[in-house]
Amino acid sequence: MKHIAIVDDEAALRENLSYALDKEGYRVSTYPNGQNAWDAFHENPPDLYLLDILMPRMDGLEFCRLLRREDTRTPIIFLSSRDEELDRVLGLETGGDDYIGKPFSVRELLARIKAVLRRADGIGLGEPAIEAGPLKLNPDSYKAVWNETELVFTLSEYRLLSELARSPGTVRTRSALYVSAFPDDKFVNERAVDSHIKRIRRKLELAGAPKNILETIYGLGYRLGIDV
Amino acid sequence: MKGLTSRLLIFNLLLAVFPIGAILFLGTYEIQLLESQERAMVQQGRILASALAGHDLKVEAHSIFERLRERTDARLRVVDENGLLLADSAKPESDEKEISSNTIQENPEASYPEENVIYRIGALPTRTYKTLSGYIKPPQTPTEISEYYSGRDILDGPEIISALNGRYGAATRISQGQKSVTLYSAIPVFRKDKVIGAVLVSRSTFSILSDLYQLRLDIAIIFLFSVGAAIILSILLARTVTVPVGRLRDQAESILDERGKLQAGFKPLAGKDEVADLSRALFRLSSRLQQRTDHMESFMADLVHEMKNPVAGILSASELAEQTAEKETLRFLEVIDREGRRIERLLDDLRELISVDVRLNRGDREMVDTGTILRNLISAYPYHRKAGVEIEFIDTTEKESKEKVYIAADPDRLAQAVLNLVDNAISFSPKKAIVELKLEKIAGGKNEKGCIQISIADRGPGIPGEATQKVFERWYTDRPEEESSDHTGLGLAIVKGIVEGYGGSIRIIPREEGGTMFLMEFPE
């Protein structure tokens, strides 16, 4: 039985989520802030963290940093109501595995938890591997390789990139990308695609990809500029 | 030069004009000088006359003149009782001119202050006045010229006749070709109560006038210098006031940028004067205002964020409840879900509205190929959401000139503004209607700049005249009751914010055949 820790200062969310997760067959612990979660980490380590960012006493960012110093494996899914904060969290240095914006659909969250746990266990999504020029995407490990350099993406980023890599050179609309990255989310906010693309771009560039590999087709969507 | 500077200059110039009064005063001074010269001449004549009284006129006069040489300013002549010239202090060869003129004329180029350009300019009004008054005044009797006696042996001028009659005689004659006059004084020489001859003293006023001219010239030069100094001082003085005031004005103007948005603070003027005080007061005021708007912006952002947490709780609870609820309860859960999402949409729009300004400031502008963007938008637009409405894109620029049309903007923001309007148009359209999206380039005239127009026209119910401005206000909606829960009333406010942020304008034009057209105009 997988153990999931919910760290959020919103009591209603803690209650709803533990009910839903409990029904799905997970063991659940809840903490109102990062400090409490950190205090309990050694005695009661979970298999996955649902982590809010803005919290009293210790925020999600600080908690993530502390956790990653000792444990690089336990996956973290960030819950946040602020896009701007995610830029900091899902940047390169801290290790978030995925994020979901508030408010979110419970069904979507459950799907994410399942996917992230599978990835942590090394079980793939059952999708075929994708290759687009120097870019290789491996759905079993959720890892991407640009030439020889390994890239670590969050689940949403991985899904977005694989959607683009499946048909390199053709334009994918924002809404198509959104559906592929957040398949079960009813709360459509296509803006989320933009911030994800920004982060994918940064990661690709750091791995040595050309600057404009992820082209913006304004008003329409995005295109992976790789000729196959 | 404007305002303060010119006022200061006028006052300073008035001060500089006072020396002109001194030049006028010189008229009196001239008369005094001439009087004293005449007195001196008479004195000289009397002394000579008394020295000659007991002697032979011709011999004694010659010997006195010999001794005097030319150490006298005046020309002395001695005549006998018949007016016959016996002796002359002037040399025979210089007989043509009077003594004092001669001495000065030896050095011709140095000595004519009245020939000076400055003097001529200064004297112009006086000369004009004299010429004019010459027409008005009765013609004066022509005065004899000073060369009256030249080359004569018998001197018979009125002053000589008067002196030979035992009285003092005087005459004034004009020096030929000169402004000066020559004064003549004749003093009788008595021997035992009988007039035996006369002494004629003559002297040109040339030297006096020459001095006066020099004086006037000096005053004119001083006047010119004063005027120059007044101008420079006024400008300097004005600059000490106008420069800081000008800077203060620039600062006051810099508080708001061209979009009327409050800008970050400026550096207040240093110094202890009132202008610097004013600048500091302005600085405090603007920083306070800046703080306030910053506070408002972050407060709104925090509010949006804080509201999202409970909304997330409500929505997840209703989602979970739906799974176990009975039919009766389900109806109410749907209401909870719908209203919860409405709050969420509101919060999203609100955040968008707050950040439009921030993003406009931050976002780099580029030249956006508008035709391509609009075409992309339409081809990707998910208008299947509301069946039966078609979007027609009319690109007049492509048909007419094949030239691409560019707007300086952030392409995402521009696309968002157009999308909001298209959404709006579609939601108001009846089924099977056509929404027209039109791109047009209006060529600039001589006095007008050209512009780029994007219009979105629908066949909806139209907007009543009084509401055409209100629709751009926040929270205003003019939708039927049943639809209003899907819309927040912020969409058009966001559009307006974006359009104006890029220096454009937006207005509503009712269509003649029914419906509404939103017209956006961007500078070329």
Detail the topology: elements first, then pairings:
The complex is a heterodimer of chains A (228) and B (524).
Chain A: E1 3-7, H1 11-24, E2 27-31, H2 34-41, E3 48-52, H3 60-70, E4 76-80, H4 83-89, E5 98-101, H5 106-120, E6 130-132, E7 135-138, E8 143-146, E9 149-152, H6 155-166, E10 171-173, H7 174-181, H8 191-206, E11 214-217, E12 221-224
Parallel strand pairs in A: 1-2, 1-3, 3-4, 4-5
Antiparallel strand pairs in A: 6-7, 7-8, 8-9, 10-12, 11-12
Chain B: H1 4-17, H2 19-52, H3 57-68, E1 75-80, E2 85-88, H4 99-105, H5 117-136, H6 158-164, E3 169-174, E4 181-191, E5 194-204, H7 206-254, H8 274-324, H9 327-362, E6 366-369, H10 370-380, E7 390-395, H11 396-400, E8 406-409, H12 411-428, E9 434-442, E10 451-457, H13 491-501, E11 505-510, E12 516-523
Parallel strand pairs in B: 7-9
Antiparallel strand pairs in B: 1-2, 1-5, 3-4, 4-5, 6-8, 9-10, 10-12, 11-12
Helix pairs in contact in B: 1-7, 2-7, 7-8, 8-9, 9-13, 12-13
Describe the structure.
The complex is a heterodimer of chains A (228) and B (524). Chain A folds into 2 domains: 3-121, Response regulator (Rossmann fold), CATH 3.40.50; 130-224, Winged helix-like DNA-binding domain superfamily/Winged helix DNA-binding domain (Arc Repressor Mutant, subunit A), CATH 1.10.10. Chain A contains 8 helices and 12 strands. Chain A has helices at 11-24, 34-41, 60-70, 83-89, 106-120, 155-166, 174-181, 191-206, and strands at residues 3-7, 27-31, 48-52, 76-80, 98-101, 130-132, 135-138, 143-146, 149-152, 171-173, 214-217, 221-224. Chain A starts with a strand and ends with a strand. The relative contact order of chain A is 0.11. The mean pLDDT of chain A is 80. In chain B, helix 7 packs parallel to helix 8. In chain B, 52% of the residues lie in helices and 16% in strands. Chain B has helices at 4-17, 19-52, 57-68, 99-105, 117-136, 158-164, 206-254, 274-324, 327-362, 370-380, 396-400, 411-428, 491-501; strands at residues 75-80, 85-88, 169-174, 181-191, 194-204, 366-369, 390-395, 406-409, 434-442, 451-457, 505-510, 516-523. Chain B has 524 residues and is α+β, with helices and mostly antiparallel strands. In chain B, the strands form 3 sheets. A 5-stranded antiparallel beta sheet of chain B has the order 2-1-5-4-3, with helices on both faces. In chain B, strands 7-9-10-12-11 form a 5-stranded mixed beta sheet. The A-B interface holds A 9-13, 16-17, 19-20, 54, 79, 81-82, 102-107, 173-175, 187, 189, 194, 216-221 and B 304-305, 308-317, 319-320, 340-341, 344, 348, 368, 372-374, 376-377, 379-380, 382, 411-412, 415, 418.
